[in-house]
Design goal:
Radius of gyration: 23 Å
Number of domains: 2
Number of helices: 1
Number of strands: 12
Oligomer: single chain
Order of helices and strands: HEEEEEEEEEEEE
Strand content: 35-45%
Structural class: alpha+beta
Distance between the termini: 62 Å
Strand order of the largest sheet: 3-4-5-6-7-8-9-12
Helix content: 10-25%
Length: 192
């Protein structure tokens, strides 16, 4: 009888432990899911933890340049009007993205070896843009992001901007911006 009680207690403990592990895995996977809203246009889907979808390379057949697209679709394409040595954008120019046949994102500036480098202006929508200095494909140095009527101007570091409790990330996960010093000017009303 004592052995039977021991088995019951052991079985109960194993069940509880298994349930706790499964619950922990579900919580962990839930926190790693991208916070992309499915009703937003593809070009506006934003996640602070990971890309919203798997990406793929598109080819501008006229320029012979490869360009990355997070939302590949047979109708998607990018058009680059600059030089393209070795299949990568290089020098000053404009890249215009088309999604489902419609123009979306546009970048005017300088590329080095396929990455944004130097001064540039990236426009996502009429209410979302970044103008400033890029290093290694992300904002770095002085720049201004305009998001839904708010401006965030100041020094960016590795794609991150911080002002008090507000953090803006462009081209990187927001979690990578934890230690960015506040050297900024913010104009607007909404809270992030």
């Amino acid at each position: 009888m004592r052995f039977h009680n021991y088995l019951l207690v052991l079985s109960f403990a194993a069940t509880q432990l298994t349930g706790a592990v499964v619950f922990g895995q579900q919580v962990a996977s839930a926190t790693m899911q991208p916070d992309c809203l499915s009703d937003e246009p593809d070009s506006l889907q934003i996640s602070w933890v990971q890309p919203c979808e798997e990406g793929d390379w598109l080819l501008d057949t006229q320029a012979g340049c490869r360009m990355w697209d997070w939302h590949p679709d047979p109708k998607d394409r990018g058009v680059w009007n600059g030089t393209c040595p070795g299949g990568k954008k290089d020098g000053r120019g404009v890249v215009q993205w088309f999604e489902h046949g419609q123009p979306i994102d546009r970048f005017e500036g300088t590329f080095r070896n396929g990455r944004r480098e130097g001064f540039g202006r990236y426009v996502w929508t009429s209410e979302a843009s970044f103008e400033g200095h890029y290093v290694n494909d992300v904002p770095n140095g002085f720049g201004t992001a305009t998001l839904l009527g708010e401006s965030f101007s100041g020094t960016w570091k590795n794609g991150c901007f911080s002002n008090d409790s507000r953090v803006v990330a462009i081209g990187v996960a927001r979690s990578s911006c934890a230690a960015v010093p506040a050297q900024a000017e913010h104009k607007g009303k909404a809270a992030f």
